[in-house]
Amino acid sequence: MNRHLLTAGDLSAADALGILDTAEAMAAVGERSIKKLPTLRGRTVVNLFFEDSTRTRTSFEVAAKRLSADVINFSAKGSSVSKGESLKDTALTLEAMGADAVVIRHGASGAPARLAGWVRGSVVNAGDGTHEHPTQALLDAYTIRQRLGSVAGLKVGLVGDILHSRVARSNVSLLTTLGARVTLVAPPTLLPFGVGGWPVDVSYDLDATLPDLDVVMMLRVQRERMNDAFFPTLREYSRRFGLDSARAARLPEHAIVMHPGPMVRGMEIESAVADSARSTVVDQVANGVSVRMAVLYLLLAGAPAGPDDDGAVLATVGAARDEGVA
């Protein structure tokens, strides 16, 4: 891996598979009675969040603590940022405190890349504007592999607000790198300019697309990022692009339903579908911890190790057991 994780495009197929294999080993740690490894003891991880977050911030915090890192949660609200401090000055403050890794979420696309130029530690992009969210794509790929065995060769549909979705951009990049065929399904107004140059298929008809999919990932309509009317009404959007039980029945029997959250039940996805056996929504949240443990471990401590490997992760687990800390 590189020193930072800023975009899904930073990852080769080998890099991504190394993270997923390491995440499997980390998941095994999560099943133990004491969910701790001493791997990052003495390291400091800063969660630097300029936008609200529940799943991502908490997931990174749990991941770092399970690796025994010291964690500092920094929120823009109530900090010097609210007094006008620049991102660069915040970065210099973190640098002076000796942060080994900074996990950043920011409303401006490109902010993590700027931060990476100002600090010596590793920078992990936890979502920047409408640009990217690489660890979300990694946990989605991990969940797909967990449920269906592999990502390569699968047909994956991303449905909804592609235009404003950093999750969609990262998933397109990572899933195609791993050999999946991706189809974007959305109204024309919610597709990005230049999407014709992306390595994807495009459809405006969800009903026609569903029977061919192995995975359907529903995306939230990000009304907070919309200044114009991108569709007539929410009801009309739901009628054409919402996933209800009747539509879910059109999927192949083995197909799974995903959502990165937060979900708007009743509009983009029906509750019966979100809570069905096909749904991976809860799995995605749980897998986020394992994947983010793997990312922090690989950036700060070592090399990939699979679940059957006697390499770094499992050696650390064994050492921890011998020391009575795992």
Task: Explain how this protein is built.
With 326 residues, the protein is α/β, with parallel strands linked by helices. It folds into two domains: 166 residues, 3-Layer(aba) Sandwich (Rossmann fold), CATH 3.40.50; 148 residues, Rossmann fold (3-Layer(aba) Sandwich). It has twelve helices and nine strands. It has a five-stranded parallel β-sheet, with helices on one face. The chain has a four-stranded parallel β-sheet with strand order 2-1-3-4. α1 crosses α5. It starts with 12 loop residues before the first helix and ends with a helix. 45% of the residues are buried.
Record keyword descriptors for this entry:
single chain; 326 residues; alpha/beta; Rossmann fold; 4-stranded parallel β-sheet; disordered C terminus
Structure at a glance:
This protein has 326 residues and is α/β, with parallel strands linked by helices. It has twelve helices and nine strands.
SSE diagram, text form:
Blueprint (H helix, E strand, L loop, with lengths): L12 H18 L13 E6 L5 H12 L3 E6 L11 H10 L4 E6 L4 H6 L5 E7 L5 H15 L6 E5 L6 H12 L3 E5 L15 E3 L2 H4 L5 E4 L15 H8 L3 H4 L7 E3 L12 H4 L6 H20 L11 H12 L3
Parallel strand pairs: 1-2, 1-3, 3-4, 5-6, 5-8, 6-7, 8-9
Helix pairs in contact: 1-5, 1-11, 2-11, 5-6, 5-11
